[in-house]
């Protein structure tokens, strides 16, 4: 299991607004700002996102390469996938696959794909077999 991911973005403030909107429908609503001066020399400032007491997705100012990264976020339902997709699109995302079953993976794999403001590939995904009813 992953503990955290850092994503370098060109404009942290703009990306914080985007991810706040896009991740909220997934229940990723906690935010934390980390002052890099609290860490070892050269540590970047970080803008964190999380849920249930865990911060696991962090943004940092830097050079972005959208083609280099794909991040999949867990959704608790198909409705949450739809809502995250709609929120991301309203916040400036580019469509990269409207909400639907991804039959090439599994008929129960429901997802939506967007490109964020830096061109990073994001997926909001609900896998019914990974959730307890």
Automatic annotation (TrEMBL):
Listed SUPFAM superfamilies: Glyoxalase/Bleomycin resistance protein/Dihydroxybiphenyl dioxygenase
Pfam families per UniProt: Glyoxalase
Top-rank taxon, per record: Bacteria
Residues of the VOC domain: 1-127
UniProt name for this protein: Putative glyoxalase
Organism: Variovorax paradoxus B4
Organism taxonomic ancestry: Bacteria, Pseudomonadati, Pseudomonadota, Betaproteobacteria, Burkholderiales
